[in-house]
Amino acid sequence: xxxxxxxxxxxxxxxxxxxxxxxxxxxxxxxxxxxxxxxxxxxxxxxxxxxxxxxxxxxxxxxxxxxxxxxxxxxxxxxxxxxxxxxxxxxxxxxxxxxxxxxxxxxxxxxxxxxxxxxxxxxxxxxxxxxxxxxxxxxxxxxxxxxxxxxxxxxxxxxxxxxxxxxxxxxxxxxxxxxxxxxxxxxxxxxxxxxxxxxxxxxxxxxxxxxxxxxxxxxxxxxxxxxxxxxxxxxxxxxxxxxxxxxxxxxxxxxxxxxxxxxxxxxxxxxxxxxxxxxxxxxxxxxxxxxxxxxxxxxxxxxxxxxxxxxxxxxxxxxxxxxxxxxxxxxxxxxxxxxxxxxxxxxxxxxxxxxxxxxxxxxxxxxxxxxxxxxxxxxxxxxxxxxxxxxxxxxxxxxxxxxxxxxxxxxxxxxxxxxxxxxxxxxxxxxxxxxxxxxxxxxxxxxxxxxxxxxxxxxxxxxxxxxxxxxxxxxxxxxxxxxxxxxxxxxxxxxxxxxxxxxxxxxxxxxxxxxxxxxx
Length: 520
Ligand SMILES: *[C@@H]1O[C@H](CO)[C@@H](O)[C@H](O)[C@H]1NC(C)=O
Ligand SMILES: *[C@@H]1O[C@H](CO)[C@@H](O)[C@H](O)[C@H]1NC(C)=O
Ligand SMILES: *[C@@H]1O[C@H](CO)[C@@H](O)[C@H](O)[C@H]1NC(C)=O
Prior knowledge:
Elements: H1 2-36, H2 89-107, E1 117-120, H3 126-133, E2 139-143, E3 151-153, E4 167-173, H4 175-178, H5 182-192, E5 193-203, H6 209-217, E6 222-231, E7 238-246, H7 250-263, H8 273-279, H9 293-300, H10 307-310, E8 319-324, H11 330-340, E9 349-353, H12 360-364, E10 369-372, E11 375-377, E12 381-389, H13 395-399, E13 403-405, E14 409-410, H14 411-414, E15 422-430, H15 431-438, E16 444-449, H16 455-465, E17 473-476, H17 499-511, E18 515-518
Parallel strand pairs: 1-2, 1-4, 2-3, 4-5, 8-9, 8-16, 9-10, 11-15, 16-17, 17-18
Antiparallel strand pairs: 5-7, 6-7, 12-13, 12-14, 12-15
Helix pairs in contact: 2-3
One 2-acetamido-2-deoxy-beta-D-glucopyranose binds at residues 164, 191.
């Protein structure tokens, strides 16, 4: 009896242990399914083997990959253990997103299973794994920091650790959206891609013609093959995919183009259609001469349609502001450009051109402003100008003792003339030539010009040299014999041009595709 009782209690213990074991297995299974989103993803534990789950690949829909790549191979060809990170739900979701993008590129022939491929700026390597999974095995990523085995270190991404012409396919992902050194990054992509190779870019910008053209301009020797809208990774936002192909002799073409441009002394430039279209949205010019210009022109600034408020200005290699006739720092750079001009978070290089020595000292303390202490002129020569003490001067200059620069003119033509103020001698430089040296056509260039009548010399020179096409947006004060506030019925004797001549200047600028605004 005793032994029977003993054996039944042993049985009891065994049954309990077995039940406990089953319970543990069930709990573990439920845990794995909820945490990893599938029963087979956690490597060391798999109750119900699902074919095609996890890291192995189904060839369904892919066509071209023919179901061959059923495992992950890293760059050196080994089939190492799967890092735990790769099995998280976020990883799968991100990799699946890129797999879908690459499947389409594969079907359309932009990437092939044998293509040597690079993913730029991929800190995690999602894109690289996605490429490998669809059968593009020779794929590698580059990011600031390395993340082996998928991603190698590329530091600032401005010196990619690959030889010229290494890759058949480069996936730039969103790297251009993130880069602060666009032109440099673009040239590295161009350099590492083989001639005839393909480049795919994803971007949240490029939704309008202006921004798309800016992007295309970053790759001048490439053909644009495809542009389409995709769902973003989080499916709440849309993004655009652009596919380019590097021309066979792209490098040579680009060099030739540049040389031809530089060697021609005067070049007429054509303003593209999408820029002309923008002008239709600009505020209208004031056709009638205002009777109270000191009110009307100041009020007009409220109507101004700034270019960055109309279009996305992404994808410019550089953002530049040129203040011609800058006067004191606060008069337009500090009070208007820094505070009011919409910059879409871009940092602008600022050039202040101001010949009057009275203003030079304060610029020495402004580290982010390049001062050119000369007068913008049509050639390199010594000029004379007068310092006016004019009652009509702006408030800011009033604080400076009513100081304002009079019209400048070559010294030779001044002799014998009657002058009312102090006459100074200054250096004038060829402004149009300087502009062509300083900025390129793909840069975003905003200019304010307030040069006391010299605009009637400078603007024609800008047209003659083709430098006008470098300017994206121009704020121009045109000086004419305006009605005076002090003395009703009297025009200022300071300027001889009429309002009609000013209007002609503005109209010709707009007709040529320059987004010019009437400045006060
Ligand atoms: C690589 O390309 C860059 C410009 O694309 C060029 O300056 C450089 O000389 C090339 N290097 C080699 C080794 O060909
Ligand atoms: C500028 O940056 C701020 C914060 O970084 C952001 O909230 C804002 O949307 C950005 N503006 C533009 C136009 O990108
Ligand atoms: C302009 O002329 C001055 C002397 O007349 C000369 O020293 C200077 O180098 C010239 N500058 C340019 C850009 O030609």
